[in-house]
Structure formats: structure tokens, C-alpha cells
Amino acid sequence: MPMPLREVLRDPTVVAAEPLVLAGRTRLGRLVTWVHTSEVLDIATLLRGGELLLVGGVSLATASPAQRVTYIQDLAERQVAAIAIETGGRLPTVPEEMVTEAERRHLPLIELRRVVRFVEVTQSINGMLVNESVRRLQLADRVSHALAAGLADGAEVGRLMTILAAEVNADASLTAPNGDVIAEARADLAAPATPAQDHPLVAPVSSAGVTVALLTLNPRPGADLLLLEAARDRAPEALGLALLRSRPLSRLERDAHELLGLAASGGRSPRRFLELATRLGINTHDAWVCTVARIGPGHGLTAGIEAAVSLRGRTVISQIDHDSYLSVVALRLEHSTLAAARAGVVEDLRDVPLPPQVKVAVGPGTRVLTGIGHDLAEARSALDLEEDSREVVVDAVALGVPRLLVALNRPELVDAFVEEQLGDLLELDRRRKGQLLETLAMYLRQSGRKTDTAAALHLQRQSLYQRLDRIMAALGHPEPGSQRWGALTLAVELEVARRRARDDP
Q1: Which domain holds residue 291?
Q2: Is 122 inside any structural domain?
């Protein structure tokens, strides 16, 4: 079973090496699947990802700076958990170019300041990983056996939930995607119900391939967390079989599953889309907008989202797809525009209390039925971009430039465009560290209103005027309203989005 990197660093065999985290400090929660040692510079292709790589530094000491940077890049692409480099002797310190690249890639890079026997580190950590994996398999088999015995005896969903709760010492609930409770069970009937946890264990339950419910486990004091994780993996299958027996899927549920499945997979079959949309009653609407919410472990249920998007008489088709809640909201535009109608969806989501830690994104909207797939994809992109932000409701339209940057996936073209439009300004900013780019960005967003710009930046007006004079001189005094002015605005937003992407952990 994988271990968080921060726990690996606490192992006595690693502590003896006096580890110092040089880069990627915000990613110490990464899971380590194995510990591996190698001095080969092109080792990345032989790894699977998730490894902690122990390096003696012999090959790195004679490598060129470019080779060292490529080494970091290759390992980051392979998604290794971390690199730990032993210093001293041939490699007195970890080369600065490696630290810089690792930080840029958010890859944990660790200096081992004392010599230790790598074989002892690998034996200790890998031994624990194997033992935990074996124990988890044993616990998973125990849960499966208990639930299989219940199924064989003809137990319905409620009885299976009672068996599960007692087996794992946790209060359990099974909830439909719309928030309706299907079944609940307490680990100890004599004790009061367990208060909702900040991080309950949540797993989707499928029936005939369609996610029809969410299983939530709230551990009681003293519960075995490894057992709970095993139950989260194994219990949904048994519960899905019980639901299939007692609550067979309706034609409507099957059609909704297929429609959203086609959309989520990028399917482009207009005829099939139309057939399904007709049966679901959304083909006669004027426009559609999609929402995506994460519902993985630590996330709440989707009832609040379903209630919000269904307000104002909207027709909604929704389902749970693995770790996401997806919905297509059909819109009428008789007395409105698409922009106003989707803004209403955003507003309603912000007004309705949502479960803790839930984050939902609203797509840009579409007037074409087969555009639902693109809208879902853009909502997902917006959700990924704002994953670490405090925003509960993410508006994809407001993230237009960052989404464009992701869609382009051509950093060399963006580099050239930004340099062409802003090169002299960025060079001046680098030399003087005058926050000129940030000032220009705010000035453009405030439509050239200097008083509002100064207030937003908490600057005295005279200080702002001095900055703007330097900015306009570096840019060659572009004329407001000209084509150059529009190109500058785009270049500024692209550069701001790029910097944010680099700085986000």
C-alpha cells in the first residue's frame, strides 16, 4: 500500500541521512509506491511512476547542466514521487539548475546530507509497503466475504449496510445522486450517530454499469482506517448487485447514462444524441450548460448541486461518473440570452449551501445539442485550473484565457507572442522588479480607469502614474482602442495565466 512521502521521510533509515527538502515542499503528500536506487541518467523509461528514487550522485557529478535538467524533466514526466540525492565527495551539493527545474515541475527534490546504506533504506520502506499491501488484501477479502455471505442469504440493501457498518466500525449511508437516502446503518445502535466527518470515505456504487448511489462511511473512534479503505474498494460491488436486484434501472436512467457517457467521451453522433435527448425531453430547448463537480474521497454529496441547477423550472439530466458528478442543464431563452441564463445557473449554485469541500464548475454553455461534450470538457478544464482555489463555484467563462492556454498546448507559440508584444516591458520588470506587468494587467481590467486601478493595487495615484509612464514608454506608447492595444491585452492575460500555472502547487 502506498505511503505519503512525508511519512517515508520520517523512517529512521531516512532520518539518519539528514534529509533536506530543496524543492517541491508542497508535494510531500505524494504517495510512494516503491523505493528504487539507480545512477543511470536515462532511468525514467524503466520506472512506472510513484517511486522514491535514491541517487548517489556519481553520474550527476560528471553530467552537463543540460543533462541534469533533462534528467529532472524526464523523471517529472514519469511522475516519480521524489528524488533523493546523496551529497558529499564527487557531488558536494545538489546543482542549482536541478533545484530550479524540480521546483518549476513541483517535483520533490531531497538532499541526503549524510551517507547511509541505500540497501537498508529500500529494505525498510519497501518491506512496509509490501506488508501494508498484504494486510489490505486480507482486510478487503474479509469485507467481501461478509457481504457475499449476506447476498447469498438473500439480504436486501438495508441488511447489507448493517453488516458493513458492524464489520468496519463505521456509520454507513447509501445515498442516491439527488440526495435521497436509500439506506443507513450505524455501527453501534446503542451509541449516538457519529457526527459527519470532515473527511468521510466516499465511493460510487454502480448498477449495470450506471452509478446509482454514493456510499459514505463515517468512522467511529478507534476504527481501522486501512479496513475502511478496503471496504470502500470492495463494498460497492456487493451493494450494486443488491440494488440491481431490488431497484432495477429505468429506461430514463439508462438513456441519461448513455447521453452523458457519449458527451464525456467526446462522442460525435448527432443522430444518437438527438434520439436520447428526445426521449429525455431536452431536445426542444434553446441552449444547454453543463456542470462538473468532484465527489471523490473527502467530498460531500450532490444534493445541493442538483437542487440549485433544477431551480427556475430547469430540466436537468445528471449522473455520477466515477469521481465526478455531471449534469446537463437545459435552458429556455425566450426572454433571455445564453450569457444571462448560464449566469443564473452560476448565481443559484452560489446561493445554495453546498456540502463541505464540494467544488463545482459551470461550462461556457452551448446552443448546439452536440456541443454538450465540448461544454463538459471545458467545465472539467475550469475545475482543474481552480482545484486549489477557495472558489466553491467555478465559472468557466471567467477563466477563458487560462482555458485557452491549456487548449493551445503550444508553449513555444505563446512564448513568441508574449515576447513580441511585451518583451521590453518584461525585461524592464525583471531588472527593476517593479511589478509592472501586474500593474498593466489591473489597468487593462479596470478599462483604463486610473483611480480604480490605484485603489485595486493599494497605490497612491502619483505612484501609479509613474509606473504607467514607465510601462507605456517600454511598450512604445500604444494607442488605446487600436489593434495593438487588443493584442497587448491578450498577451498580458496569457502571461498572467502562465505565471499562475507555474506558481500553483
Answers
A1: 251-400
A2: no
Residue 69 and residue 29 share a domain: yes
d(C-alpha 450, C-alpha 448), whole Å: 6
Please check whether residues 199 and 105 belong to one and the same domain: no
Instruction: DSSP letter for 209, please.
Output: T
Phi, psi of 413 (to 5 degrees): -70, -40
Q: Which three cell numbers stand for residue 28?
A: 510531500
Residue with cell 463538459: 376
393, 358 in Cβ contact below 8 A? no
Q: What confidence tens digit (pLDDT) does each residue in 454-465 have?
A: 999 999 999 999
Is the Cβ–Cβ distance between 290 and 377 less than 8 Å?
no
Per residue in 452-505, pLDDT (tens digit) is 999 999 999 999 999 999 999 999 999 888 889 999 999 999 999 888 876 654
**CA geometry: angle at 104 spanning 103 and 106, to 5°?**
60
- Work out the number of other CB atoms within 10 angstroms of the CB of residue 189: 10
Mean of pLDDT values over 100-120: 91
- Residue 125 is assigned to a structural domain of this protein: no
Q: Where are the beta strands (DSSP E) in 299-410?
A: 315-321, 324-331, 360-362, 393-395
For range 366-383, the mean pLDDT: 91
Query: pLDDT of 401-435, one tens digit each?
Result: 888 888 887 888 888 899 999 999 998 888 877 78
Is 226 in the same domain as 273? no
Report d(CA 45, CA 34) in Å as an integer: 16
